[in-house]
Amino acid sequence: MGKILFFMCYFLYVILRSKKSFHMLQQNFYNNSNRYVKWIFNNYKKSILTVDWLFSIIVIIGLFGIDIGYLMAVFYFIMFIYYYDYLKFEQVKIGLKLTKRIGRMCITLFILYVLLVIFYKDSNYVYFLFGVLASLNSFVIYLVNVINKPVEKMVYLHFFNMAKSKLKNMNRMSVIGVTGSYGKTSSKNILADIMKVKYDVMPTPQNYNTPYGLMLTINNKMDKFLEYFIAEMGACEVGQIKELCDFVHPKYGIITRIGVAHLDSFKTEENIIKTKFELIESLPHDGIGVLNADDPKQVGYSIKNDCRIVWVGIDNDCDYRAFDIKYTYKGMSFKVNIDGTDYEFSSSLIGRANIYNILAGIALSHELGMNISDIQRGVRSIKPIEHRLQMKKMGNINIIDDAYNSNPVGSSMAVEALSLMPGEKVIVTPGMIELKDKEYDYNYQFGVEISKVCDKVILVGHKQTRAIQDALKDNNYDESNLYVIDDVKEAFNIVGRDCDAGAYVLLENDLPDIFNE
Fold it and tell me: 207 φ, ψ to 5°?
């Protein structure tokens, strides 16, 4: 009876632990580039050195011939209550998505435990074995992911071939690829809003920029009347953009800006640049690539393709250059000289980063045959992009939501956008991540820029924001206007309590749950 109670309480607890481990596995892209394994060891206090190991004290008692089934049952029931309470109050930004892939792994986990129960239920080692498995649950889920790899490969090939077949029959459709270290989703959506004035256009939804994301879009959303498919393309390793290009065969391509995002996995900036240009170098000879003339990494690259290249920019002479730029807190306007004539464009979007994205949309739309009046109308109709310098209201507080992610160039442009706003200026940020050995320096510089603009600073994470704190201190920032917290939810309480009515609050970056302190 004691052993039955043990298994009942044990599996209640293991279900909760496994849910958390699956969540972290999913947020780490199912261990792509060993991200999940790195998370386990970087967060060993959460994943390895946990209170679960207290079970070993009970096992030692059992060595003296005492039946410990009831004690183990009580222990795991207490652990279940403790962990349930912990998860209930844990800060979670994006919860576990119960996809079919997670479902398949749950089945594998179930089978694994059933086999262990069958073979070890009468063994004297059952409590020790199952106790170790609970304590090392993160590794058990890693093992399940490895076991399921052949199945996932078969599923992938099935949907991949289905998508390839569908693309082959889309004779009237052309593919536009959009990549870069940042600004991909914004540029993609802006281009789609402009081109929809004349063409039947479909962009990949949200930030679907992986082979799986493209397959889902093609198989589930693409129809035979489509004229242009705008495919966002993401990568964290050399060759991944080429893989996407070999899949969808873009005729046109846009590179937004090249920076140091995912430097941990790319290893070097040269690898990042090479990977982004895989898009341009995959275009056919009659294709068109749109590049940024203000990005030294793009200007200095020797392109191995003879396709047509169109340059956009603000600071340097190029094919489509924005000038006479006017910013307000309600939006912005600028002029572009096209075919010898100056044309004015206006948008409700804010920020220098969005001017580059709009310029890329103007350039490619014009190259594809749209007239200027239609392009102007398309620019005016551009919808705000969620979590990317998106203006919102929270009571009498103005929110500039740039929470999707952050990088050295984007964060600087976001602070610049905040500086244009009237009234009190506030920033809420956890800083920037995945910048390898340059992370401290980039965050320090970010802190210097913050110190010049922000009336109040709310930093999320004591350890994560150390570089920004150092920069504020070195620049004599008033400590009474600095808040360092561990839960982003607390930031909204501070804003509501301490900020002026009409204040502008920049939400810069929102780290995934894997970075919770």
Answer: -115, 45
What's the rounded Cα separation, in Å, for the pair 187 and 208?
Answer: 14
Which superfamily does CATH assign the domain made up of 390-515 to? Mur ligase, C-terminal domain (3.90.190.20)
- pLDDT tens for the chain, 517 residues: list them: 788 999 999 999 999 999 999 999 998 889 987 889 988 998 888 889 999 999 999 999 988 888 898 999 999 999 999 999 888 877 666 788 899 999 999 999 999 999 999 988 777 789 999 999 999 999 999 999 999 999 999 999 999 999 999 999 998 999 999 999 888 999 999 999 999 999 999 999 987 899 989 999 999 999 888 999 999 999 888 999 999 999 999 999 999 999 877 767 788 889 999 999 999 999 999 999 999 999 999 999 999 999 999 999 999 999 999 999 998 777 899 999 999 999 999 999 988 889 999 999 999 999 999 999 999 999 999 988 777 788 888 888 999 988 877 778 888 888 998 998 888 999 999 998 877 778 899 999 999 999 999 999 999 999 889 999 999 999 999 999 999 998 888 888 999 899 998 899 999 987 544 344 4
Q: Say which DSSP state 383 is in.
A: P
Which stretches within 169-204 are classed as H helix?
184-195
Task: Output the six-digit token pair for 329.
Answer: 């807190």
Residue indicated by tokens 């808040």: 483
Q: Helix or strand or coil: residue 349? A: coil
Dihedral of alpha carbons 211, 216, 217, 223, sign: positive
Measuring CA to CA, which residue among 480, 464, 481 is closest to residue 427? 481
Measured between its terminal Cα atoms, the distance across the chain in Å is: 41
> Which residues does residue 344 pair with via DSSP β-bridges, in sequence order?
335
Strand extents, DSSP E, 263-302: 288-292
Place of tokens 């103007």: 362
* Residues 412/442, Cβ–Cβ less than 8 Å: no
Task: Encode burial over 145-164: b for 16+ CB neighbours within 10 A, e otherwise.
Answer: beebeeeeeeeeeebbeebe
In this structure, are residues 141 and 17 in contact, taking their beta carbons and an 8 Å threshold? no
DSSP structure class, residue 257: B
Is residue 270 within 8 Å of residue 195, measured between CB atoms? no
Q: Out of 3.40.1190.10, 3.40.30.10, 1.25.40.10, 3.40.50.20, select the CATH number for domain 171-380.
A: 3.40.1190.10
